[in-house]
Predict the structure.
Amino acid sequence: MKVYSWNVNGVRAVLNKGTFLEFVKEHQPDVLCLQETKANRDQVEIDLPKYHEYWNSAQKKGYSGTAIFTKIKPIKVTNDFPPAITQKYLKPDSYGNIAEEGRVMTAEFEKYFIVTVYTPNSKGDLSRLELRQKHWDPAFLKYCEFLQSQKPVIFCGDLNVAHTEDDLANPKPNIGKHGFTNEERKGFDNFLGAGFVDTFRIFTKGNGNYSWWTHWANARARNVGWRIDYLLVSASISSKVKSATIHPDILGSDHCPVSIEIDL
């Protein structure tokens, strides 16, 4: 089974560029998880007859949002967190209500869950770092642990953090900046501590492998990027992961897709 994750930075934009349908045709993902769709379904002209599709759009127009396209029909698809987790952990901030931004979707299959997540950015001035550290990251971890108590979990998406110095081209000048704070990196550590495995690191060590590049200074061509898009799996199924790949050749967004092949 091939699972792909891609922050498209606006699904309408990537469709208009012609790259999205070409990518699907060439790679034929069994499950495709999208982040930052920035659209409601009725705003998108897309026809993928082989796929069941599910959307979780933000209440704010043109913002955030996730989607799942899957050849395998799920038992159930759930948007957002369960109410108990939302009520315990999440609260509105100066940017709005994080629970209404369409950031999480879960597809339940017979033997596993697949979750797509668009983690909030802590912002250049770190004005959303407290929300990340004290609210979002604990809520998402608690949710993944809840799912994992039932069956194995594959979760993927834009986690908006470079975990280690190998995950960005210029670590030293970025220490303490958004996406590379101790708080955000600790949040990632907590997923590993809860029994999840960073699939890319099963196969590939070291730096030079990135999934996001700024538009400035020809960064993508020079591969001056960050690895902030991930596929993590429950440790109980990590041995079934046959490959984990980053696809920097796929254009259309400032992020590129990441994928795994897993034998389930």
